[in-house]
Design brief:
single chain, mainly alpha
């Protein structure tokens, strides 16, 4: 059975997901930078994952604050 959540709870969940995506993006980007000299394939994979988390972050930002991301472009 699915739980019904109100808009405040939904916003809290989105904000937690946004925070997590931000942490993951930073971690994978840092890992990619660390691996660049040791393992090019692993570094590329880490950068790709960082980019994917950055995309998720941008989508969640657009949900929370519509139009804000377009202002910075």
């Amino acid at each position: 059975m699915m739980d019904v959540v109100d808009s405040d709870e939904l916003l809290r969940r989105i904000q937690r997901a946004r925070t997590r995506a931000q942490e993951e993006a930073r971690a994978w980007q840092a890992r990619g930078a660390d691996l660049v000299d040791d393992d090019a394939d692993a570094a590329r994979d880490a950068r790709t994952r960082g980019i994917a988390y950055q995309a998720v972050l941008e989508v969640l930002d657009e949900i929370v604050t519509p139009g804000r991301s377009a202002e910075g472009r």
